[in-house]
């Protein structure tokens, strides 16, 4: 990590509930960032390396169930990207290799790319 000014960033909804939190290094998102629904349920968890997505990111439905799981390496999609419906059922699976989509499945059925 390069040297720079560290700043913890938090924002709140009008009702006082935490809306988001994370660290800034020289003005760039760094480390784990969390965003929340106004109800307090986590909405997004993502990891950054000096402003670039790096690592797993998660998005949740308002009922708390996971909505998607993605993985980035220095901002480039890598590995499995999984998308779930509100009930928690896996609907879409995409697999990336160095940013290039290698496969796409919907409800367990591989779909051909054009």
Note down, in words, how this protein is organized:
This protein is an all-beta fold. The chain has a single domain, classed as Outer Surface Protein A, domain 3 (Alpha-Beta Complex). Helices cover 0% and strands 64% of the residues. The protein has strands at residues 6-12, 18-25, 28-36, 42-49, 52-53, 55-60, 66-73, 76-77, 79-84, 90-97, 100-106, 109-110. Strands 1, 2, 3, 4, 5, 6, 7, 8, 9, 10, 11 and 12 form a twelve-stranded antiparallel β-sheet that branches. The chain is flat.
Task: Map the helices and strands.
Blueprint: E1 6-12, E2 18-25, E3 28-36, E4 42-49, E5 52-53, E6 55-60, E7 66-73, E8 76-77, E9 79-84, E10 90-97, E11 100-106, E12 109-110
Antiparallel strand pairs: 1-2, 2-3, 3-4, 4-5, 4-6, 6-7, 7-8, 7-9, 9-10, 10-11, 11-12
């Amino acid at each position: 990590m390069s040297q720079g000014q560290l700043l913890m960033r938090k924002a709140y909804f009008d009702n006082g509930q935490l809306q988001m939190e994370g660290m800034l290094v020289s003005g760039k998102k760094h480390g784990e960032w969390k965003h929340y629904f106004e109800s307090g349920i986590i909405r997004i968890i993502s990891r950054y390396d000096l402003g670039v997505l790096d690592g797993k990111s998660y998005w949740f439905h308002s009922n708390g169930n996971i909505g998607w799981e993605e993985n980035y390496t220095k901002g480039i999609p890598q590995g499995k990207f999984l998308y779930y419906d509100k009930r928690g059922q896996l609907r879409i699976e995409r697999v990336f290799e160095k940013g290039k989509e290698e496969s796409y499945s919907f409800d367990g059925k591989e779909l051909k790319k054009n």
